[in-house]
Amino acid sequence: MRIVILATEDQKIEIINGKNKASATNIIFIKVISEIESYKDFDALFLLTGPLPDFGTEVVSQKPVIINSVINTLESQKLPSNFGRINGWPGFLERSVWEVATNAGSDAEIVFRALEWEVSFVKDEPGLVTARVLSMIINEAYFALDENVSTKNEIDLAMKLGTNYPIGPFEWADKIGIDNIYHLLKKLSETNKRYLIAPLLEKAFQESTLARL
CA 171 to CA 66: how far, in whole Å? Predict the structure, then answer.
């Protein structure tokens, strides 16, 4: 089986460090989508970086395609039934189990079994599961900070010691990127008010945006 993965160098390193390598599977990493022209006989395609390309449907009409799409669902993007989505945010590709939302579970399962990668098939919802829960924890940490419950460092330490988290909520926010957290919460809050964004998180997002200008 030949798997083509479009990924940044950081994403490639995360995958290599975090996943079992299947000797019978030929994994080819590419950096730009145009390289796919050299590997049209692939069995599955992973698109983990950049916007979804506009390529000919004949190339991917029957083969599993897995995209990095944490916030936007397959349904909202009107993607074909052979597409699936995962969380490719920083820190998530190295996880031992990937969450996968797809309408072609059996075909995707064959691919992941060949790769010897453990997956958990989840509903096609914004944030999948872990990112949705984690974004809420980070949001609550910003509420606590705003209420002067404690400092960022102390909140991170309390979560690590009290819940055995590998890193604290503010450390997660720095790793993932406050923009990613903000946009996911914004999407989730459209249908569920418990995801309303903490004022300090909103401020952190605005400062991050201004810093890029």
Answer: 28
Q: What is the CA radius of gyration of the chain?
A: 18
Instruction: Please identify which residue in the block is written with the tokens 């979560």.
Output: 159
Contacts for 172 with CB less than 8 Å, ≥ 6 apart: 91, 134, 137, 138
Dig out the tokens for 2 from the structure: 């030949």
Q: Assess whether pLDDT exceeds 70 at residue 96.
A: yes
The whole-angstrom separation of Cα 189 and Cα 166 is 27
pLDDT recorded at residue 22? 55
The type of residue at 69 is: S
Other C-beta atoms lying within 10 Å of the C-beta of residue 118: 13
CB 48 within 8 A of CB 93: yes
Q: How far apart are CA 109 and CA 121, in angstroms?
A: 9
Measured distance CA(40)–CA(27) in Å, rounded: 14
pTM recorded for the entire structure: 0.91
- If phi > 0 it is left, if psi is from -120 to 50 it is alpha, else beta; for residue 157 that is alpha
